[in-house]
Amino acid sequence: MAERHTTGQETEGAVRGAPGTRGEGPAGVEEGVHEGVDEAVARAWEELVATARRTVADGLVVGTSGNVSVRVGDTVLVTPTGVPYDRLTPADVTGVDLTGRQVIGTLVPTSELPLHLAVHRTTDARAVVHTHAVHATAVSTLVDVLPAIHYMTAALGGPVRVARYAAYGTRELAENTLRALDGRTGCLMRNHGTLTHGATLDQAYDRTAQLEWMCRVWLTASSIPGLTPTLLTREQLTEAGERLRGYGQ
């Protein structure tokens, strides 16, 4: 969601006065924006914005729905709330520490900040992608676990669970999602969307796209009257997982 959200730990001083934030006064907005923002952060922000724009281009979100984060050291860069991704610039870099205190930028972070921070604190994720993908959201309303329709299920750690519904932006939603992610790198969120994580933004995004594709395949196959899709067994998924570990360059 794109609604305004604060963590409760942010104060105006923390947002306005932290290192690397925009300065106020005659010096102008741009003058102080990169103080304390090193090259790694600037590069990560560029990749984050590109990933966020890709979610729109590929139809995984509409408008400013969905959100993306990437971790650089102990700082988590996140998409800001309510700002169209095509308007984001290098001057809009937005970052928080692992407690949710804003340390970079003046734009308010995504309303789903508790969700992103929970994943970054609890898993080995360096990047998180959350979308409202159509087919995945539809599946989230029908089942508790995405049926094993394709061997790429193994690439996400096994059958993909559906996190129980909770209001967006809440600690309850973050907790429900973490339970669904146990042993997995992706999950569906009931009546909401998807969340995947990875070692890089590219990996997290690829997992999101793969999850949406599998949901579309299952919906398509299960829509044929009188026929039931063939599903993979646990043994077949285990074999696929072993083969996938050696896949690629």
Summarize this entry quickly:
The chain has helices at 12-17, 39-57, 113-122, 134-140, 171-181, 201-222, 234-244, and strands at residues 67-72, 75-78, 95-97, 102-104, 127-131, 162-163, 186-189, 193-198.
Structural notes for this entry:
The protein has seven helices and eight strands. The protein has an eight-stranded mixed beta sheet with strand order 4-3-2-1-5-8-7-6, with helices on both faces. It is 35% helix and 13% strand. With 249 residues, it is α+β, with helices and mostly antiparallel strands. It is globular.
Brief descriptors of the model:
globular; 8-stranded mixed sheet; single chain; 7 helices; 13% strand
Q: Beta-strand level of the residues, as a percent range?
A: 5-15%
How are the strands of the largest sheet arranged?
4-3-2-1-5-8-7-6
Helix and strand element order:
HHEEEEHEHEHEEHH
User: What best-fitting shape do the alpha-carbon axes yield?
Assistant: globular
- Alpha-carbon distance between the termini? 37 Å
Tell me how many strands there are. Answer: 8
Helix content: 25-40%
Q: What can be said about the biggest beta sheet?
A: 8 strands, mixed
Mean pLDDT: 87
Radius of gyration: 19 Å
Task: Please mark out the parts with pLDDT under 50 across 5 or more consecutive residues, or reply none.
Answer: 1-34
Helix/strand class:
alpha+beta
The total count of helices amounts to: 7
